[in-house]
Amino acid sequence: MIYTRGKDDDAEQVRQTVTLCHTVPHYGGKRWWMICPYRGIRVGKLYIPPGGDRFASRKAWRLGYQSQRDTPRDVPFERLFRLQEKLGCERGWGQYPRKPKGMWWRTYWQHMERFGKLDAECSSEMMNWIGQLSKQSE
């Protein structure tokens, strides 16, 4: 693959070879994979992070997932935000979702029950955090 990295005077032509291979799933057909140019491992995606200069696997770049960086205090907020996105609502504590068009009411009420529990967890985490801050300021 050949691509241009940078802009104007800093532009650089990069030539990188990516080997392909395939497997045959039990249900038929072919599943194509890429071989990471640096680690030599079979992967489904190659990444080029900000500041990176070549495509490589997640392992080669030592990239983690967002969930690996979340603190225990962030977990209920992230779950709440994912549910808000699923319901077509803006992400944010205090944003109340409406029923998306085409969703069954029964399904919506199941999501809203979960929403209520997650909102309560977020409130509890926030109160614990405020309590810790007030202890530190004393």
From TrEMBL:
Domain of life, per lineage: Bacteria
Name of the featured protein: Uncharacterized protein
